Q: What sequence folds into this?
């Protein structure tokens, strides 16, 4: 019968994209991870992973086994955390998926407060695009995630709003404007952020009937800013959480005004650590009453 270590090793290799990263995550040697996965494959009678041109990939058997492995570990985690909760203690792992554009500003302070309040909880942070965050929530790779609101089928709480702004080279023709509309912005080469911002402004762009001429894509906001600084195009980013603007880059308000409301969402079956984190975020919206 597969062991807990074997299942953890398989999931770590898949989630981290390789044996070395998996060994760092689990605090084990790479050969130990390799042996655990090989023993699991022998136990199941089929290879689960194959190495291709793009690195490791799941075989058909591996794709079939993966969700079952996640469910086994999820139920074991629930068993431990629910028993600990009855004793008044929150333990286990908080697996949180976040957007690169908000991790440092909105999420990091909340994780710091959470870690101080629940020292027995291990925190695991994933970063990706909004679609990746939702996929990780659906697949069970994360139990809590930062998403744009509203969201269906998940319990959620608001963590903050972000105004989206036009990001321009300082010598661009639009830099002298007090505000920039989508129609004029779409006339310039565009740099699209793939860190979760596009899902906010693209619906607005479609609503006003414009298509952006995407010349570059970049995941990190700092990379977008550097491309803009080079005069290679314009972009749209959230005003909150922007790194310090490089020389030669300016921001201007967008017309129509575009706001992203962000929240933390968890599934109905989330374990105690994710539930506790959601409760912490929900408490942010509770305003103390004036005496």
A:
């Amino acid at each position: 019968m597969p062991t807990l270590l074997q299942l953890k090793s398989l999931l770590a290799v898949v989630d981290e994209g390789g044996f070395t990263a998996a060994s760092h995550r689990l605090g084990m040697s790479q050969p130990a991870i390799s042996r655990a996965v090989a023993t699991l494959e022998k136990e199941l009678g089929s290879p689960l992973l194959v190495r291709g041109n793009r690195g490791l990939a799941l075989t058909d058997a591996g794709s079939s086994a993966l969700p079952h492995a996640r469910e086994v570990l999820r139920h074991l985690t629930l068993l431990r955390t629910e028993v600990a909760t009855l004793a008044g203690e929150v333990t286990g792992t908080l697996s949180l998926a976040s957007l690169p554009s908000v991790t440092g500003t909105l999420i990091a302070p909340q994780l710091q407060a959470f870690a101080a309040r629940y020292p027995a909880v291990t925190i695991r942070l994933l970063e990706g695009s909004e679609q990746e965050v939702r996929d990780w929530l659906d697949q069970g790779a994360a139990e809590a995630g930062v998403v744009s609101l509203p969201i269906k089928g998940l319990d959620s709480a608001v963590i903050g709003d972000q105004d989206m702004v036009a990001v321009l080279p300082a010598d661009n023709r639009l830099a002298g404007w007090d505000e920039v509309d989508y129609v004029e912005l779409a006339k310039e080469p565009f740099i699209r952020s793939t860190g979760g911002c596009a899902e906010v402004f693209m619906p607005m762009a479609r609503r006003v009937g414009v298509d952006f001429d995407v010349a570059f894509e970049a995941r990190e906001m700092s990379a977008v800013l550097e491309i803009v600084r080079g005069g290679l195009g314009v972009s749209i980013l959230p005003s909150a959480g922007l790194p310090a603007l490089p020389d030669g880059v300016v921001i201007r308000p967008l017309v129509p005004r575009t706001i992203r409301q962000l929240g933390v969402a968890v599934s109905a079956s989330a374990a105690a650590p994710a539930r506790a984190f959601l409760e912490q975020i929900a408490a942010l919206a509770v305003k103390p009453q004036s005496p």
